[in-house]
Amino acid sequence: MPHTTKKIRPPSSGSVSFERLAHFMICLSIVLYALYAGSSFFIPIAFGLFFSLMLKPICHRFECNLPNRILSVVLTLLTAGMMVLGVLVFFINQIREILTEADDIFSGLQETFYEWAEYGGGRFGLSGREVEQYIDQALTSVSDQPFGILSTGLSTSGVLLANFSLVMIYTFFFLLYRTPIKNFLLGQLQREDQVEGLQTLTEVQQVAKNYLGGMGLVMLILGILNSLGLFAIGIDYYLVWGFLAAILAVIPYIGTVIGGLLPFIFAIATTETLWQPLAVVLLYVTVQFIEGNFITPKVLGNSVKINALAAILSVLIGSIFWGIAGVILAIPLLAMVRIIFTHIEPLQPVALLLSDDLYKESDKFLSDYNESRFRLSNIFSGKASLSLLPRRRSTSKPPKRVSHSDAQVVADPEPE
């Protein structure tokens, strides 16, 4: 009987290489652990990078009139610092005045709760003495709850606040060395990919700059709307409460709730009527609706282009890794990642999955992206690489050699 041997079928070219997948998971785990364990190191760097992107247009204006970049960067930081200092001085003075009335505010809050609790307790057959005992036990924790939430949030982001000088130092050097950093990143690409790489970096920079600038405009609009509404209702310190809620709105989903809860409790303690606290709630609900459906989509929609599900998930993941700082940075970081994915062919479906056009362009997954080159499995099978897409052909021929001055222009298209 002849001896037969089975032929071993070679793995198909599209099968997943578990070795590649294991290497990827190990590297991803190391990166995520480093971001989590080294949050005190990475958070100031991340904020310094975003601040430098936001301040770059101001720095560029100074550089157009001053030949020295160092002097331009210093003047840029001084200008931004004076604006921030003015806002801080305003809030500190107003909060100091509020704290001088803390006893009266607490007494008014206590009396109002007594009246409401006695009215409700009478309907449930509770005596006034029982109601007073319950109020005495619960009032302190109830009145301190929003302040506790706020202080907890600030302590979570204390790494940023405690190292504010370190953030400014990073911002200074990112602004000063932005051209060499771009040159270094472009130098890591093949010569034929450098133009596409420059386009990618420009889009990423534009997203970050537009997001931060847009958030500033959104906070200004919210502060004005809140303050005008509180002034019409008759709430004292309407500017403080209005702009405090606007600043807290930078924390997605929970910032506005905290910002509206504080003036609501203040209205309960300092007003004689019931309609004013209810009007405060109605005001913040209305402003939140306007902000979520009209202001933010109009101001930030063109720069972020992230769908709601991806935004919520990024905020949750950011809070796990970096606390409040991660919540603030999650959406712009995800927007920048989406831009990078759009320039890498196998990851283009993932970019669409993160995009706000997901519902309108859902058919692309089974039409434009229904090819093997767009499947994630090809990354782990070795058939596809994470290189940038080839740039469209241009009529002009690329130079054979890039001089020092040309590299400066390629890396930073703005005039120096």
From TrEMBL:
<feature type="transmembrane region" description="Helical">
    <location>
        <begin position="21"/>
        <end position="50"/>
    </location>
</feature>
<keyword id="KW-0812">Transmembrane</keyword>
<feature type="transmembrane region" description="Helical">
    <location>
        <begin position="70"/>
        <end position="92"/>
    </location>
</feature>
<feature type="transmembrane region" description="Helical">
    <location>
        <begin position="274"/>
        <end position="296"/>
    </location>
</feature>
<feature type="transmembrane region" description="Helical">
    <location>
        <begin position="240"/>
        <end position="268"/>
    </location>
</feature>
<comment type="similarity">
    <text>Belongs to the autoinducer-2 exporter (AI-2E) (TC 2.A.86) family.</text>
</comment>
<feature type="transmembrane region" description="Helical">
    <location>
        <begin position="308"/>
        <end position="341"/>
    </location>
</feature>
<protein>
    <recommendedName>
        <fullName>AI-2E family transporter</fullName>
    </recommendedName>
</protein>
<keyword id="KW-0813">Transport</keyword>
<feature type="region of interest" description="Disordered">
    <location>
        <begin position="391"/>
        <end position="416"/>
    </location>
</feature>
<keyword id="KW-0472">Membrane</keyword>
<keyword id="KW-1133">Transmembrane helix</keyword>
<dbReference type="InterPro" id="IPR002549">
    <property type="entry name" value="AI-2E-like"/>
</dbReference>
<dbReference type="Pfam" id="PF01594">
    <property type="entry name" value="AI-2E_transport"/>
</dbReference>
<keyword id="KW-1003">Cell membrane</keyword>
<feature type="transmembrane region" description="Helical">
    <location>
        <begin position="159"/>
        <end position="177"/>
    </location>
</feature>
<feature type="transmembrane region" description="Helical">
    <location>
        <begin position="211"/>
        <end position="233"/>
    </location>
</feature>
<dbReference type="GO" id="GO:0005886">
    <property type="term" value="C:plasma membrane"/>
</dbReference>
<feature type="compositionally biased region" description="Basic residues">
    <location>
        <begin position="391"/>
        <end position="402"/>
    </location>
</feature>
